[in-house]
Write a structure and sequence with these properties.
Number of helices: 1
Shape: elongated
Number of strands: 8
Strand content: over 45%
Oligomer: single chain
């Protein structure tokens, strides 16, 4: 199984453009799915979807705005979810590898959850259309965080 996944990733990056087709002053839009492992025992796993608007301020740096929905699953009690609203900064190290930092709010959708401050550092690989990233997210008011893998499709506007 691991060999098949590795082979698939090699194919994706071999047949994708070596640059993420960035131009100074351009916008990109991406849609992603993510799955994560919460950092405490209160939740079993998380699944979510998001949209990200990115503005390239140079060939190697971008500002981003991200929102979507994340659902935290429990085995014993009711599940819960939230809407993340984040602003971020992305910087490329080379042609495809980047690091990303985001801050914002996680707006709870379950009764009594409220809103939590959210911060999320991450690393990723981006090609012309594919973006794969790994990030840590912390929600201080919800007393948890998660390590999450995001798979996204993006395009230039």
């Amino acid at each position: 199984m691991k060999h098949k996944i590795l082979f698939l990733l090699v194919l994706i990056f071999t047949f994708s453009a070596s640059y993420s087709q960035k131009e100074k002053g351009s916008f990109r839009l991406g849609y992603g799915f993510n799955g994560g492992v919460p950092t405490n025992n209160a939740f079993n796993f998380s699944l979510g979807a998001d949209g990200r608007l990115q503005y390239d301020i140079s060939m190697k740096t971008s500002f981003s705005a991200t929102t979507g929905y994340t659902h935290l699953f429990k085995s014993t009690e009711h599940d819960t979810g939230f809407i993340p609203v984040k602003l971020g900064f992305k910087s490329f190290i080379g042609n495809q590898i980047y690091y990303l930092g985001e801050v914002g709010a996680a707006i709870g959708v379950s009764k009594g959850m409220g809103t939590s401050f959210l911060w999320a550092p991450g690393i990723g690989i981006a090609t012309k259309h594919i973006d794969i990233s790994l990030r840590y997210e912390n929600y201080n008011r919800f007393d948890t965080g998660q390590v999450s893998l995001r798979l996204a499709y993006g395009y230039k506007l």
